[in-house]
Amino acid sequence: MPNLAFDIAHLLAGSLVLVSFMMLYQDRLYALLNVFALHAVVLACSVAWQAYIQNAPHLYVTAVIALVFKAVIIPVALHRIIKQLGIHRDIETAVGIGLTMLAGMGLVALSMVLMLRVTGTADPLAREDLAFALSVVLLGLLVMVTRRNAVSQVVGFMSLENGLVLAATGAKGMPLVVEISVAFSILIAFIVIGVFLFRIRERFDTVDVGALDEFRGERR
Amino acid sequence: MTSAVAQQLWCVATLLGTTVLAIATSRSRRSTAIVYGATLAISLIALSRCLPVLVAGGNATELVLPVGLPWLGAHFRLDALAAFFLAVVNLGGAAASLYGLGYGSHETAPHRVLPFFPAFLAGMNLVVLADDAFTFLLCWEFMSLASWALVMAHHREADNARAGYVYLVMASFGTLALLLAFGLLSGAGGGYGFATMRAAQHSPSEAGLVLALMLLGAGSKAGLAPLHVWLPLAHPAAPSHVSALMSGVMTKVAIYGFIRVVFDLLGPPNWSSAVVVLVLGSATAVLGILSALMEKDLKRLLAYSTIENIGVIFASLGLALAFQANGLGLAAALAFTAALFHILNHSFFKSLLFFGAGAVLSSTGQRNIETLGGLIHRMPLTSFAFLVGCVAISALPPFNGFASEWLVFQAILQSPDLPQWGLKVMVPAVGASLALAAALAAACFVKAFGITFLGRARSPVAEAAGEVDRCSLAAMFALAVLCFLAGILPGLVIDVLSPVAQALLGHRMPVQASDPWLSIVPIEESRSSYNGLLVFVFITATASLAVYFIHRFASHAIRRGPAWGCGFTDPTPAAQYSGVSFVQPIRRVFGTLVFQAREHVEMPPPGDLRPARLKVEMHDPVWEGLYAPVSGAVWFLADRLNQLQFLTIRRYLSLVFATLVTLLLVLAIWS
């Protein structure tokens, strides 16, 4: 049974990394949002499994928060924003997909090498979890860096935060208060960013952040 | 009965209260009198409370206040060394306050000076009293900032803002060096109290590093070359009584820091460290006085002369280190006492000279000596006091400057006892450069006094000058009397300073009070002795006799000769000997090498009615050789980094991302 528990936790965390990779090559916004919702669902499953094997009921609350906020409310809201902004047909071509995937693989390899070596004495489950979590964080950052559209940068930021939650639940003994406050701060950040999206749109007629740079008189 | 250190802290608290009072009453017309009166009273009280500690010797008193770092508190301690420097600080503070009572009424913006003056005094007192690294650094910075505010009091005048900027940069640099030095001293255990540092063992390499850092930190504050560049800018920029405090007292507080760490906390010295101090001290002395000679601005000249005296003091301290490292306790005590004596003397005559410069400034509005002249007729009392200061700083008997420099040279004459050949050869060379500096100092002050006070007025303002008020004169004459007394009674001063040397070096100079006729005998009767009183009596007697004979016999005799123009062969005052022409020989001999001084004659073509002009071109070797490249490099880097301000959002994100990945990579490879 312990082996099975470990394997399933491993599988779920690994799928989170896999979904992060899927995010890297989505060049349409709706598709990206769908993948992000999937990301949140996998995260919720992983957290729920952790709650089960650690026998920590408060982690179920975290899982529910992840499911409700990140898998439902935020993607739906972003859908509406995209529709209102009328950018659902936009295609992004910031950095080539192949190159991005290669960079992503390098990052995952880096985080594996690093985490497995640094956390040599830790519990194997926590080790694997931390390594995957760092991969997810780095991939989220990569999404933010390679995208030009403000909405997809928001999605990258949210997926980065998912990585943090994964790391937090993998390590035993994280208080519920911290998780709830993190969840709410993410929500607030989402609201603020949403407002900003509309303001940017109002002023520049686009949410391509490149327009901001042009406005400042900079070359890209 | 509270302990001595508690009494001093109460004085400091009252000074800080005076600061608050000064802020509250800054718009009132009477606040100048109130503030300077209060600081005068407090300084005199503090002086009267610390002198018994110094004279009676006695045990150090300590006090811990529950402020500052929570696990450390603020430690204060009053021992013989601290008592001596407290005496210097409070004597200078009392004199400056007395002078300020009169000089302060000319102040155009008193609300920029009055609050910071007591704060500055309080800061200097606190540095001397501090007994742990944290308190020391905090008070040191407080002192620096208060003096910076005073430098910036007239911030709209040309160059003052630059002076303040350079001062701030150098003060921060110095404090950084001190921070590192104390970090090394406290070691891995983190014992920030001076008592734990004193008890700890320091390895030779660590001790060498601490000494170098102290030379940087305390040396930059004291004005040790090549870290002196801020001093001739900042000291003259402040109001004159503050300049006197900065030059006469604050540089001494910096030397206190050096002595406290190197002689007290660091343990037994190494002779090679003495070499560094000796070389830096003598180089500072020569460079300082040469720069002073080239100067036309009276206050800047005095500031450069401060650098020379700091050099003399550091050279003497270096001698003390060299003797102490070789176990020659008596010679070390002699050199150390000479340094302390010179510290005291310099605080007397440098304050006096700055007061005189301030009197000239308030009376004529001029600092440039080339526009002055003939002031001895309009300001006879000021010029007499200034003359006393000039004679004292030129190390002429019977004044105090001679007594202390004579002691320094007595210490140099002990150098054949040193076992190391390097020191045996070097110490006489240091002595030679100190002798050169002393001679140049005499020339410098002949110029300063002669061009300012003698001759005929070179400008209408100098013609219309008048004597200054009584408070200023009282301050100047009090210091002049102190210069005279310390000069004819050096034995008393040496006996008062002996407990300090005894506490730090374990040896002291022989008791001088028992010597007949107030003479001083540094080592033994057969080698050398000096009697200031006798020299004074001799000078007075021979001078009176000479005057009597000239007036009695020569003046009345009938002589025939060509009509004498009373020395005024040319009718315009501009044709008098000027400061620049006075120093031309010295500039040609030394300036060509040190300052790369070049003279160009601009001859107008035939038919042109313009006069021919002699132009002198000089370069500051320290500024151009050291500071200009450093500041150029900083500007270059800042220009390159400036582009980081204007990146796109994605570039910023990528930068963060790349930094993170790089750090992770480093971690992955390293661990």
Automatic annotation (TrEMBL), chain A:
<keyword id="KW-0560">Oxidoreductase</keyword>
<feature type="transmembrane region" description="Helical">
    <location>
        <begin position="94"/>
        <end position="118"/>
    </location>
</feature>
<keyword id="KW-0472">Membrane</keyword>
<dbReference type="InterPro" id="IPR038730">
    <property type="entry name" value="HyfE-like"/>
</dbReference>
<keyword id="KW-1003">Cell membrane</keyword>
<protein>
    <submittedName>
        <fullName>Hydrogenase-4 component E</fullName>
        <ecNumber>1.-.-.-</ecNumber>
    </submittedName>
</protein>
<feature type="transmembrane region" description="Helical">
    <location>
        <begin position="130"/>
        <end position="147"/>
    </location>
</feature>
<feature type="transmembrane region" description="Helical">
    <location>
        <begin position="177"/>
        <end position="198"/>
    </location>
</feature>
<feature type="transmembrane region" description="Helical">
    <location>
        <begin position="59"/>
        <end position="82"/>
    </location>
</feature>
<dbReference type="GO" id="GO:0016491">
    <property type="term" value="F:oxidoreductase activity"/>
</dbReference>
<feature type="transmembrane region" description="Helical">
    <location>
        <begin position="6"/>
        <end position="25"/>
    </location>
</feature>
<keyword id="KW-0812">Transmembrane</keyword>
<dbReference type="GO" id="GO:0005886">
    <property type="term" value="C:plasma membrane"/>
</dbReference>
<feature type="transmembrane region" description="Helical">
    <location>
        <begin position="154"/>
        <end position="171"/>
    </location>
</feature>
<keyword id="KW-1133">Transmembrane helix</keyword>
<feature type="transmembrane region" description="Helical">
    <location>
        <begin position="32"/>
        <end position="53"/>
    </location>
</feature>
Automatic annotation (TrEMBL), chain B:
<dbReference type="GO" id="GO:0005886">
    <property type="term" value="C:plasma membrane"/>
</dbReference>
<feature type="transmembrane region" description="Helical">
    <location>
        <begin position="33"/>
        <end position="60"/>
    </location>
</feature>
<dbReference type="InterPro" id="IPR003918">
    <property type="entry name" value="NADH_UbQ_OxRdtase"/>
</dbReference>
<dbReference type="GO" id="GO:0042773">
    <property type="term" value="P:ATP synthesis coupled electron transport"/>
</dbReference>
<feature type="transmembrane region" description="Helical">
    <location>
        <begin position="208"/>
        <end position="230"/>
    </location>
</feature>
<protein>
    <submittedName>
        <fullName>Hydrogenase-4 component B</fullName>
        <ecNumber>1.-.-.-</ecNumber>
    </submittedName>
</protein>
<keyword id="KW-0812">Transmembrane</keyword>
<keyword id="KW-0560">Oxidoreductase</keyword>
<feature type="transmembrane region" description="Helical">
    <location>
        <begin position="271"/>
        <end position="294"/>
    </location>
</feature>
<feature type="domain" description="NADH:quinone oxidoreductase/Mrp antiporter transmembrane">
    <location>
        <begin position="130"/>
        <end position="415"/>
    </location>
</feature>
<feature type="transmembrane region" description="Helical">
    <location>
        <begin position="328"/>
        <end position="361"/>
    </location>
</feature>
<feature type="transmembrane region" description="Helical">
    <location>
        <begin position="113"/>
        <end position="129"/>
    </location>
</feature>
<dbReference type="Pfam" id="PF00361">
    <property type="entry name" value="Proton_antipo_M"/>
</dbReference>
<feature type="transmembrane region" description="Helical">
    <location>
        <begin position="301"/>
        <end position="322"/>
    </location>
</feature>
<dbReference type="GO" id="GO:0008137">
    <property type="term" value="F:NADH dehydrogenase (ubiquinone) activity"/>
</dbReference>
<feature type="transmembrane region" description="Helical">
    <location>
        <begin position="425"/>
        <end position="450"/>
    </location>
</feature>
<dbReference type="InterPro" id="IPR001750">
    <property type="entry name" value="ND/Mrp_TM"/>
</dbReference>
<feature type="transmembrane region" description="Helical">
    <location>
        <begin position="652"/>
        <end position="670"/>
    </location>
</feature>
<feature type="transmembrane region" description="Helical">
    <location>
        <begin position="530"/>
        <end position="550"/>
    </location>
</feature>
<keyword id="KW-1003">Cell membrane</keyword>
<keyword id="KW-0472">Membrane</keyword>
<feature type="transmembrane region" description="Helical">
    <location>
        <begin position="165"/>
        <end position="188"/>
    </location>
</feature>
